[in-house]
Amino acid sequence: xxxxxxxxxxxAALVGAGLVSRAGAATLPEAPIMQSAATQPPPPPPxxxxxxPVVTLNGWSLPWRMKDGVKEFHLIAEPVVRxxxxxxxxxxxxxxxxxxxxxxxxxxxxxxxxFVTNRxxxxxxxxxxxxxxxxxxxxxxxLTQPGIAPGKTFVYEFVARRPGTFMYHPHADEMVQMAMxxxxxxxxxxxxxxxxxxxxxxxxxxxxxxxxxxxxxxxxNEMLDFNLWTFNSRxxxxxxxxxxxxxxxxxxxxxxxxxxxxxxxxxxxEFEVTGTDGGWTxxxxxxxxxxxxxxxxxxxxxxxxxxxxxxxxxxxxxxHHTMNAMGHDVPTLIGVDHRGVAEKIAKLVPDYMVMGEKGxxxxxxxxxxxxxxxxxxxGQGPVGGIEMGGMFTLLKVRKDQKRGDYRDPGWYRxxxxxxxxxxxxxxxxxxxxxxxxxxxxxxAQAAEIEVTVxxxxxxxxxx
Length: 463
Known about the structure:
Layout: H1 4-9, H2 22-27, E1 55-56, E2 65-67, E3 70-85, E4 88-95, E5 104-107, E6 111-118, E7 127-129, E8 153-159, E9 164-169, H3 174-177, E10 184-189, E11 200-209, E12 228-231, E13 242-245, E14 249-256, E15 262-266, E16 272-276, E17 279-280, E18 291-294, E19 299-305, E20 310-316, H4 339-348, E21 378-381, E22 384-388, E23 392-398, E24 433-434, E25 440-441, H5 443-446
Parallel strand pairs: 1-11, 3-6, 5-10, 11-14, 13-23
Antiparallel strand pairs: 2-3, 3-4, 6-8, 7-9, 9-10, 11-12, 14-19, 15-18, 15-20, 16-17, 16-19, 20-23, 21-22, 24-25
């Protein structure tokens, strides 16, 4: 596995000789490949103007070369294998070995040149979502350019005019290519590194896939019924935690390229929305929130001071978006006693397990799964199963986390007396309800009280 230091040292993969001529290959910048699904720590910029780098959750930033004052990047559109979480991999399409592709970081005013080589079996393009650029560089196949044919390389060149947070994705056969995972993040830093500066700056994309249990390739024609909801194509517990120092000012930028909105919720802290695709929000327009809804095609940047130590949940608040596959088309069996049926089925299917009559929790039970399939609700915490999947991770706030250290500090050690506990005393007396005269009535008799319902009068003539 190549490290980020290897990338800058030049030990990275070049474009295959069969894709371009030798003369053309000699002019192309390197095309680094990353296959690790772990979050890569941000390196300082090796050249060009200074900036504060971002951390791509379960991802990395694309190196560049400086040539005659121009920042040159090289993206390879290609089939990739992405580990969604330990125990499951998916056949996706992406860039430079991963889906999503690497984050591109530049500085306001940079002249940028991006080479895009197509190793897919069909034509593609790249749209630079939210950027101000010449119309011919906008990347819409058939409108501003022909598609990049398989084996060909196109060049996009423009000035990064506006600081902010953007995305990139194809505008060619979008239904297939985006459903297969083709997308990436773009950050244009302000000229002044002190402007909008924070201590930790995380970025990731929201993705959705429909991958049948036991299979590896998404169903690209799905429009509504997705079964895998991910941060940067990773499902919990495969999503890394965001590890910060207590007192850090933290920014989290999330872009949504799924087919539905996502109300993203943070526990233990309130935040402000400080940025959108359109730019930074003015301070006087901000207000405190604990959940922000990110619509399709939008980006939201939130900021807060990580003042409260602990392991705080961070997730989409749509409950089925914090589950993995196998959660669809399952009947509700709460309260249904099907022991007799279960005994008969068990004679035919020895591994059959009764599910759902007391709720959806599996507790510590495990059931057989098809190969390459994740449990619906999984992930172990320090005191048991977290019972979450999909779009869920943790913000880990620690007093002793060193500045610039993004390593996982392990589980939080709660101070004595600060953890919820079981009550061991006597149960409280039964709740009593008042009768019509205001007198207390035993709870057992309350259910027998006759209730008279009087229909409202008036508005005669309306039905």
